[in-house]
Protein 1
Amino acid sequence: MLINSLSIKKSQTILSLTISALLFSTSACSEPTNNATHIASASDSSNSSNKQTNEQSSASKPSFTTQTIATFDEPWAMSALPKSAGENEPKLLVTQKTGELFIVDTATGKKVAIAGVPKVAYGGQGGLGDIILAPDFATTNNVYLSYVEAGTVSESNKYGAKVIKAKFAGVDSVNPSLQAITPIWQQTPKVEGQGHYSHRLLFSPDGKYLYISSGDRQQKDPAQDMSVNLGKIIRLYPDGSVPADNPFASNKDISSQFWSIGHRNVLGMSFDNKAQLWAHEMGPRGGDEFNLINKGANYGWPLVSNGRNYSGTDIPDHDTRPEFAAPKISWTPVISPSSMSIYSAGSHNDFPTWEGNALLSGLSSQALIVVTMDATNQVSERYRYDMNERIRSVLAVDGEVFLLEDGNNSRLLKLIAS
């Protein structure tokens, strides 16, 4: 009996350890590219770890197929240009990490390279990053880009994100280019390693403020350090100056840039229809987060997390430190969220049941995740679509939805409601 009891106990221990290993098996810092074979269309299957998603009936979940528009090598971000008179489909600006920028006509699939992109430090998670239009693009043709810059002299072999403004010349010509480049912001200090730049860009709905996500650069501690701008969400005027009503503006130092602190790797930011700022970030080993971003709030990294360290050691959960803002929802196993776009009907309204929902692209999860936020800011995962490929970016524009796959020979897809 003693032998049988010990054997049972040993089996239970092995089972417990196996479950724990599976629970935290996928790292949220899921950035390596994937060159798996592409498939023809998206799956409508639900693969959610959240109860809310599993409870959705198949009849209530919109379905779609996909149309391939164009292919890219290591694309990172996309942004829509204003439609010209008579245009039904948008033209998109698409960045590639290796430093290329393209206009792609989604009606024809034609791609045109844009000259004048600054030299980028490509490697790891770094390279050319985000691109957005200036609020006054219609009159100025100004755009904002983020990219990784290598250090020189005392900062040799160190890297940091940089944000610039540029004039987009020759938009409708065969030789478009970026001109009149003006520096706006940079990560300080540059550090070794090539991860967690974040460098996502977003303008406020009124066009007055530029928000920049600045990752912790895999250094952890800077996220709580008020003397460096790593691990923060930054808020500036479009010219790079600091608004006087920023939460730490009275400090008259680098912290005057900060809107919120305690972030790890924010790769998605969007405003909802109430002008509330939402952001998601990758957790460590588990604990991806979806946060409502409030002025001056501290989100706790690396002091708290709903995930664990990569070594397997524990990190205190958010509920142990109520002074830190807790995520509205977190994911373990992780989804590795890489971008976010909030759906609005527009002239197409292809997915009316997604109205006001956040669309998240997933890398390790190889999924499109639809998240709903109710009137009281309660959040839940609503749907999950298995795309069978790492998804780098999602963009909802004028009621249509576009996805960018990750890695080489990756497709730009348009979702076709069915």
Protein 2
Amino acid sequence: MAWPFSAIRTCARLSDQGASALEGEIRTDRIQVAEKLPTEALLVQHFQMSLTVVCEAIARVRPLGVLGSRQGSGVYVLAPSIKPLQFDVPLTEPQIEQLRQTFGAHW
């Protein structure tokens, strides 16, 4: 009997999707510089994600330098500075093959 299921495709983690959406809200000025970020409860409703996922998404955006915390007050949007380095860029097959040739088969 053949099952009507499709193959499961890998996709970005929900926290990555949330971080991308939150960063997009900031970079497109829908959330202005110096503006307080909405509460996690409001972000949960807005993005329709769990509180854990929203908190992890915020934690992923912080290293980008666009969010800052004020103790007892909340999380605020910071003026963008130099774009930070990103080390989690996926490699293409040709790049992986070049690394294998350069550094050996164990890479």
Protein 3
Amino acid sequence: MTFTRTTAVTAAVLTVAAVTAAVLPPAPQAVAGAPPVARACVRSDPAGDARAREVLDIARQVKDELDLNSVVLRVTVDGRELVTGALGESMTGVPAEPDMHVRAGSVAFPFLGIVLLQLAEEGRVGLDEPVSRWLPGLPRADEITLRMLGDSTSGLADYVTDPGFLAAIYADPFRHWDADELVAISTSHPFWYRPGSNWSYSHANFVLLGAALEKITGTRLDHLLRERVTGPLGLDQTVNNYTPDIPTPVLHAFTASRGTYEESTFWNPSWTTAPGAVLVTDICDLARSVEAVGTGELLSPEAFRTQLDPGTVGLPGPGPDCPETVCLPQTAARHFGLGVIVSDGWILSNPSFYGYAAIEAYLPVERLAVAVTTTKGCASPDRNTAQDVAGRIVDRLAPDHPLTLG
């Protein structure tokens, strides 16, 4: 089961809304800042650990099977490195390295959920407050709550599935998308259901949540995430960009999503999530972030339980008014939490963006974290291939807890 949709654009994160433009501070037109020099993210020496060698052998095999340009990975157990590695090339003649930066996509979603839960614990907001206080121009704003934005139960259509939007991003992948354009696309479609009564994935929810968090705190979103999440966790290589630039070193991406195999590294990610949360990261930060998200490190036990199940478990799923391609069943085993996916005991995010694919997954019962990024070759399948690599690694390291995302 996966909570990503459509083809090449489906697992990425998206940007704030038409109705929110008036409440957003103006976005700077430059990169928010290159990551500071910090701890080295380098290949580990697998010579002394048979499991580390096996993990790299598995990754190498999947890389060859799927014609991947690169596989970069990090596995930790109880916060301690088991293996960090990089296979293949970033570009012809340029080896992939663990410290290379990649698009982080939906890795931002659990961060937004954490900030919301922190603010609720501080008594600054209630999860079930209507968003009309901060986003008065949003249709049905008096029915949609902050919780519904965070757990994707608002009923808003996903603009990523809109045919006109898809045509536009394929026609001009370098185009910058403003927040107001994106939510306007979602709100031009009917709601799928009464807010809060079902579940469906919509990037618009997180676009709007980012705008609401800025309005609630009076703080620009990139600063808010740095103050409350990435800073405290030491994620120095996880930074927001307001342009398509990526701080060096860069793991380059390629895709055939437009019919021709071409470089997509600097295609514009402005549509992928709220301005201020369009993140890049490296593999060491990816592993560290899922350790923190998967243990509730920045939350109280009660708030962490809410992040893992904010009320989505048991929602009805597909029915006469919402097809099975939109309203997915939410069961105790597999459901969407407050910005995170919970799947058979794993807590995870699985972003992808035009040739980039990634997964960060944490298994609490084994204290096992698996982070993988991949880039595609000419013959690579059109899916999140990082999940293939991670799934095979998990089959070796935790055979009783398969990572099955469908």
Protein 4
Amino acid sequence: MVLSNIEQEETWLQGWDVLDDLIERNPGGYLLLPDYKEVSLGEARDWIQAAAYENNKTVFDTEYYKGKKSILINKVPA
């Protein structure tokens, strides 16, 4: 499915909101991309935005990584 420009923007903004909520509930962990690359908040937001412009939605999981409850970010087709 191809998202309209507005849908793409809504998708990445929703992804940012979910990420912010997860960070608040799980402080001190890592932010991880699908390949388990550790990224900063800015890099994670850029990745979420790029995923939306590729017509993908973002999904999140929490799991333990290096002994800390961390956030794994992945994308699925919209």
